[in-house]
Design goal:
134 residues, homotrimer, 3 helices, Jelly Rolls
């Protein structure tokens, strides 16, 4: 398992980690299998979405901010319940297909770390499971 | 990896792909492992939900349409930010258990392709990872 | 594959299943691989979130109850469309990394069964896929 280090810059942020993932697959000489991209934090998540127009990411963060208000009479005293809720809605991991050494993403897909309670130093865990038949 | 072709018929649509997945597992003589069902598009997703009453799917699409309005002052100029947001909320893939050649789903579970910016020709990617111990 | 039995106590409930999952990994002498935690029901789900302050879980259930009302002119006649919608939003499964026999979760992460149409007797399916290279 590999740990990536990420620095987020705002309370809510979205960081493209696609290249870091591809570099890891090259480094370990991955061939064919599945890759887990896991966020070990409970106020952040991992999503796959458009890698072209940055406005898509902006709209996604804005939507989540409106749908899950920062203050809404939450019981949790740390004041970041919205971030925990967003983490469950977005999911804390993604599983990706690796085929012939290539990360199988659609033409417009990138992998993103979503921060909901930053700025912070964060980690992403990568675990590659090769096809056992090879 | 296998690519399924799917034709969606409306802007927002939901297509049962359970049988196509089961047929693929028979074709490759899958025994025991995990199966990734991956949508390579950023304005669609894959979900698992009830396969019996079609009204459940109708209610799900209607809910998403209300929760994520098509027009809401989005920055993304293509006019389909709602579809990208729904894709993140629903998720672009599902991982399923395969045991003794059988797709392990609960009695009422089916696997569905969710279209949020159709009608279009779409793909679903299937990747089976067998248990390496066998 | 292992089936866990779970008893939920309210219509909407959240049950910590982390210890049961860890016990299963010990029992099967898991070493390194991926673990699927699958909910075979269409009105429940599996999430990973904070395992410390129970108020986080309370806030999460409350949020989902407000975001997806129990009655909202749904077409599905069984009266539990809200539960089906929540199941898609939360997701019916999680894939976890297992490394050197250890369930790889962040310091504050636990695995939770989310009930949206209880109280009921429920199941969670666990399937471990070992690293084929070992």
């Amino acid at each position: 398992m590999q740990k990536l280090s990420i620095r987020t810059n705002r309370r809510c942020d979205i960081i493209d980690i696609t290249t870091a993932i591809k570099n890891y697959l090259v480094e370990i000489k991955a061939h064919t299998g599945l890759l887990s991209v896991h966020c070990p934090h409970t106020t952040a998540g991992i999503t796959i979405n458009e890698n072209a127009d940055p406005d898509v990411r902006k709209d996604l963060l804005k939507y989540l901010g409106q749908a899950v208000p920062e203050n809404d009479g939450y019981a949790h005293s740390e004041g970041n319940s919205d971030a925990h809720i967003k983490s469950t809605l977005v999911n804390c991991s993604q599983i990706l297909i690796v085929e012939d050494g290539k990360l199988m993403l659609g033409q417009w897909q990138g992998v993103f770390f979503m921060e909901f309670d930053g700025p912070r130093e964060r980690e992403v865990w990568l675990k590659y499971l090769p096809d056992g038949k090879r």
